[in-house]
Amino acid sequence: MRKITLDLDVLRTFSTGMELGSFAKAAERLGRSTSAVSAQLKKLEQQAETAIFVKAGRGLALTEAGETMLGYARRMLDLNDEAITAVHGSELEGWVRLGLQEDFGESLLTDVLGQFARAHPKVRIEARVTRNADLLDRITSGRLDLALAWSSGASTTPHYEHVLDVPMCWIGPAGESRNWQNGGDPLPLISLEAPCLLRTAAVNALDRAGIPWRLSFISPSLTGLWAATAAGLGVTIRTPFGLPTTVQRLGPQEDGLPSLPSLGLMLHRSEAQPEPATARLAAILLQSINSIPQKK
């Protein structure tokens, strides 16, 4: 098979269009004409020597080959951008204090710190994984430079941005299906210690649905929460991020549980205009969040 070198500019247009859900929007973001974008997509199919797109109504959908290409395109662009940053940002220095919600401690921290350290070896990072209320308090008091936290829906910090909305879901032990209201007993609920945004959401949903409940296990940490859930002591409520293999999402209707709202994920900054090192870490953090798989 002859060697083919894919065009990174073409891959960037392809990836951006799929991210935005529109190649017209991609053309606008990348400063290209729609005809130039169309030519690039045609070139991509020529280089791939297979169909990348298929007609879907008035738009385009990816073929199986297209889905495979998209995954590789994103990885190639990430590596390209990391290389450029490493070359031009190797002299970046400073100290960044980062705070993360427990849900992202394992799924995000290693990737973010590793990528940042390779590109900016002279920057020192102090990372703290803790509860939501503690993160917001540390940002407000200036003890953290960046914090990734759930939206409380009330008062917040002076400098923040909405990252995305994440669905809350009921969680039970893996590989087990049961009626948690069997016999009319109160639903056993596993929760973190108060105050807990998700605990409040669970209680409100159950009360609105008229489902009796009881706290069967209270944990000070996410590790204890997962252990109790995996052991079958009850159900809990989290988001799809960072779920261990010992637990699974429950279907609200099939398991007799009420539907749940989404939860906003926010990136907080202690300063309106952060230092260059802080701004760069924030960019890597946002990029990594979008690549985290959410367990189905």
TrEMBL record:
Keyword Metal-binding: no
InterPro entries noted in UniProt: LTTR, LysR_HTH_N, LysR_subst-bd, WH-like_DNA-bd_sf, WH_DNA-bd_sf
UniProt domain HTH lysR-type: residue ranges: 6-63
Record's keyword annotation contains Iron: no
Keywords: DNA-binding, Transcription, Transcription regulation
Residue spans crossing the bilayer: none
Single GO molecular function: DNA binding
Lineage top rank: taxon: Bacteria
A matching Pfam family: HTH_1
PANTHER family linked to this entry: HTH-TYPE TRANSCRIPTIONAL REGULATOR LRHA-RELATED, TRANSCRIPTIONAL REGULATOR
Family to which the UniProt record says this protein belongs: Belongs to the LysR transcriptional regulatory family.
Name recorded for this polypeptide: DNA-binding transcriptional LysR family regulator
Organism: Phyllobacterium ifriqiyense
